[in-house]
C-alpha cells in the first residue's frame, strides 16, 4: 500500500519526506484516497496584464533648407585661408594637397562622408606660359550619410586648384568658400534631392584647350551609367566673388537648369544675368556626358590668373548672393 511504503521510507531516512499519496497499485478498497496539496493557481485578478504597446514616436522630419541659412562668414573665412594663408595651389603641389586636407576636414565636421579620388594631371604649360609638372591631384567628394549614387541627386562643385602664379582668391577660393557655406547650411536639413559636394582638382589649363578639367573629367569617368542618369543637375561655382550681378552660364542657351537658377535668383531679388555658351568650367564635363550642368560666376576682373588675386579682391556681398541662389535651388518646393 502507498501509506506503508511512505512510512517505511521516512523511518529509514530519519527525515520527513514529501511523497505521493497515490498508491502504486491503486487505492485500497473502502479507504479514502488522500490527495496531494492542491496546486497553487493564480486567480484571474493576479495574472500579469500586458502593457498596451505604444507605437514609437516617428523621427521628426528635418527642417527644409532655406536661402536664409547661409553663413557668409564661412565663405569669407575659406577665401582668407586658401588664398591668404596657403596661397597658390597648383594641382599637383603640396599646397594643393594641404588645401584638400583642409576642405575634407570641413566637410567631415559638417557630418558628411568624405572620399578622396586620385586624379592624374599631365605635365604642360599653364597660363602665360608657366610650366606645370605631371603628378597626382585629387577630388574631395562629400556625400550625406546613407547616400545612394544610383538614386536621383544633385551635384555642387568648385575647383580647388589655381594657376601656379596666383593665390586664387577669386579663382577659385571664392567658389570653394561658397560651396563650404552651402554644405554647412544643408547639413542635416531637408533638400529637394540629396546633394553631393565636390572640390575638384586640376581644373586649370595645362596646355591646349582640352588640357584642363581633369578632376571633373575623372569624377564623371568613374560614374556608372545608372549614376549618370541619377544626376538631376550639376552646378559649378567658379569665380563667384566679383561684381554685383551673378552670371548664370550654360553650355546652350536657355536650358532647364539655367532657367531654374535664374528663377531662383528672381524669387530672392538677386540680380543675375544669363551667360550662354559657357563651357569653361567643371560643369562642362557633366554636360558633354549627357548630364544637366550650369556655371555660376565668371565676371571679368583685373587680377585674373595674377599674383594680385588676393582676398581683398573678393566681395562678401557677392559671395552671399551666389550662396543664396544655390540654396534656393536646393530647397524643396513649399508644401
From TrEMBL:
Domain Peptidase M28: 139-329
Domain of life where this protein originates: Bacteria
Short name of one Pfam family: Peptidase_M28
Record GO terms (molecular function): metalloexopeptidase activity
Biased composition (Acidic residues): 58-70
Keyword Metal-binding: no
Regions of compositional bias (Polar residues) in chain numbering: 30-40
Region span, Disordered: 21-70
Keyword Transport: no
GO biological process: proteolysis
UniProt KW keywords: Signal
Secretion signal, residue range per the UniProt entry: 1-20
Biased composition, class Low complexity, residue ranges: 41-56
PANTHER family, sorted: METALLOPEPTIDASE M28 FAMILY MEMBER (PTHR12147), PEPTIDASE M28 DOMAIN-CONTAINING PROTEIN (PTHR12147:SF26)
Protein name: Zn-dependent exopeptidase M28
Organism the protein comes from: Nocardioides zhouii
Amino acid at each position: 500500500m502507498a501509506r506503508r511504503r511512505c512510512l517505511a521510507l521516512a523511518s529509514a531516512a530519519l527525515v520527513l519526506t514529501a511523497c505521493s499519496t497515490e498508491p502504486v497499485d491503486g487505492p485500497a478498497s473502502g479507504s479514502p484516497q488522500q490527495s496531494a496539496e492542491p496546486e497553487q493557481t493564480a486567480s484571474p485578478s493576479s495574472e500579469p496584464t500586458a502593457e498596451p504597446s505604444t507605437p514609437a514616436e516617428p523621427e521628426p522630419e528635418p527642417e527644409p533648407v532655406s536661402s536664409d541659412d547661409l553663413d557668409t562668414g564661412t565663405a569669407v573665412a575659406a577665401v582668407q585661408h586658401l588664398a591668404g594663408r596657403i596661397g597658390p595651389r597648383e594641382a599637383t603641389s603640396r599646397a594643393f594637397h594641404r588645401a584638400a586636407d583642409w576642405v575634407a576636414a570641413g566637410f567631415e565636421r559638417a557630418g558628411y562622408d568624405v572620399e578622396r579620388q586620385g586624379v592624374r594631371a599631365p605635365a604642360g604649360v599653364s597660363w602665360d606660359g608657366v610650366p606645370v609638372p605631371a603628378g597626382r591631384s585629387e577630388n574631395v567628394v562629400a556625400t550625406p550619410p546613407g547616400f545612394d549614387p544610383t538614386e536621383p541627386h544633385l551635384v555642387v562643385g568648385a575647383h580647388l586648384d589655381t594657376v601656379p602664379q596666383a593665390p586664387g582668391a577669386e579663382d577659385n577660393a571664392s567658389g570653394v568658400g561658397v560651396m563650404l557655406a552651402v554644405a554647412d547650411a544643408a547639413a542635416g536639413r531637408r533638400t529637394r534631392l540629396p546633394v553631393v559636394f565636390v572640390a575638384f582638382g586640376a581644373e586649370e589649363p595645362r596646355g591646349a584647350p582640352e588640357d584642363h578639367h581633369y578632376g571633373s573629367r575623372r569624377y564623371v569617368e568613374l560614374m556608372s551609367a545608372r549614376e549618370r542618369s541619377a544626376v538631376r543637375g550639376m552646378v559649378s561655382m567658379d569665380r563667384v566673388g566679383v561684381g554685383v550681378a551673378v552670371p548664370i552660364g550654360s553650355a546652350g542657351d536657355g536650358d532647364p537648369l539655367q532657367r531654374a537658377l535664374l528663377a531662383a535668383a528672381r524669387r530672392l531679388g538677386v540680380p543675375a544675368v544669363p551667360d550662354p555658351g559657357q563651357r569653361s568650367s567643371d560643369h562642362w564635363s557633366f554636360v558633354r556626358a549627357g548630364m544637366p550642368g550650369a556655371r555660376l560666376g565668371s565676371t571679368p576682373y583685373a587680377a585674373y590668373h595674377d599674383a594680385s588675386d588676393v582676398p581683398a579682391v573678393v566681395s562678401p556681398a557677392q559671395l552671399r548672393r551666389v550662396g543664396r541662389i544655390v540654396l534656393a535651388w536646393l530647397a524643396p518646393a513649399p508644401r
